[in-house]
Amino acid sequence: MIICNPLLNTSRLRNLKGIIFDCDGVLFDSREVNVRFYNQVRAYFELEPMSEDEGEFVHMHSVQDSLKHILPEKFLSRLIEIREQVDYKELIPFMRMEEGLHRVLEFLRQKRIMMAINTNRTTTMGLLLQRFDLDDYFWPVVTAAKVSRPKPHPESIFKILDLWSVQRNEVAFIGDSRVDQETAMASGVPFWAYKNEYLHGEMYIPDFMTLKEFLAGNI
Predict the structure, then answer these.
(1) Is 148 in contact with 137 (CB distance < 8 Å)?
(2) Which CATH number does the domain 3-29+96-216 belong to among 3.40.50.1000, 3.20.20.60, 3.40.50.2000, 1.10.10.10?
(3) Does residue 6 have a pLDDT over 70?
(4) Which residues contact 52 (CB under 8 A, 6 or more apart)?
(5) What is the model's pTM?
(6) Beta strands of 71-215 (E only): which ranges?
């Protein structure tokens, strides 16, 4: 069941022009893959696996910020070496696309609602979209490599709004983390929390099929 903030004016949804999606934790269940990747990086330097708190951090932040967080400073000068030795491409087959995603994307396309991605990933987003046949749904795809200040700074949201030529109240941002919530708040864009009841937003979404049914009755 969709849980809406009592202040949500559902009539606003009739003017919805675009939805911005986070990637990890929204389009894909990628927590396990991220943990595998960063633990491989730590193992390369003969370090113990990450703690739970470190695993939570890397799930939400950019590669650059994550590496700085989980590695001692003395190893940071060897980041190029790390990328040559640890290949994220090998982990992509372990990614799991969220159930019902294709259906909700097709529904939104039929309704002529624009779709974008706003992620703190850097170089792997294109590979993921190709691997799961999602290339044609999203424009733009804004990664941490395409902005000077990644989430939670609102630069990425503002970039999408500018390319779409829409106002903040004509879109929504779907995310699953505190970083996503802070990004939405900083940009003034309504936030929809995905599978995380502890976040504060305009609505809580338990799964994509429920979202599809809810939007079908309100847009």
Answers:
(1) no
(2) 3.40.50.1000
(3) no
(4) none
(5) 0.82
(6) 96-97, 114-118, 141-142, 171-175, 191-194, 203-205
